[in-house]
Each structure stands twice: as C-alpha cells, then as structure tokens.
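Following up on my earlier thread - several people asked me to post the actual chain instead of describing it. Fair enough. Here it is, all 88 residues.
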Amino acid sequence: MPTAVTLVRRPEFRLHTWTCHGGDTGWSAPERPVDARLVLVHAGRFRRRSLSGQVDLDPTVGYLGAPGEEELFAHPHGGDVCTSIQLT
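Reply from S.P.:
Thanks for posting it. Predicted structure:
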C-alpha cells in the first residue's frame, strides 16, 4: 500500500512524495485521479498501465497523467519513491 506525504498544498497545485513498498507482482485496482499530474521517479522501479499502454518506470523517466485517466500499477521489482505534482 502506498504512503503519501504532502509537501505543499496550494489552490492550484499540490506536491506529494509517494513511497510504495512493493512486493505485489500483480496489478493494483484501477485508479482515476481527478487532477492532471506530473510524476517523477526517484528510486526503485514499477509498471504503469493506462490507455496509452504499459510502461516500466525508473529514476530515468517520469510520466504525465490526464484528469480522469484510468491507471493501474504493479511493483514486481520491490518498492519505489516518487514525487507527484498535481495540478487542479
């Protein structure tokens, strides 16, 4: 289960760090965040599946998420740490 820490909360954006402990090789339940977001991976690796397809993410990449976009996550290689900037 991921753990979030809110670093900044403003009317137009929020900044969070997320820590996922991993260990679950299966896909998570579908999520549909309501805000656009930019997610940067700091440590570890994980997989993300959305309408755009499936991608493996690590500290060399990040991703943009659209409002209402369905996404699923898998952590077959252990945990990860990310920063998420959510734009309202």
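The longest strand covers residues 36-44. That should answer part of your original question.
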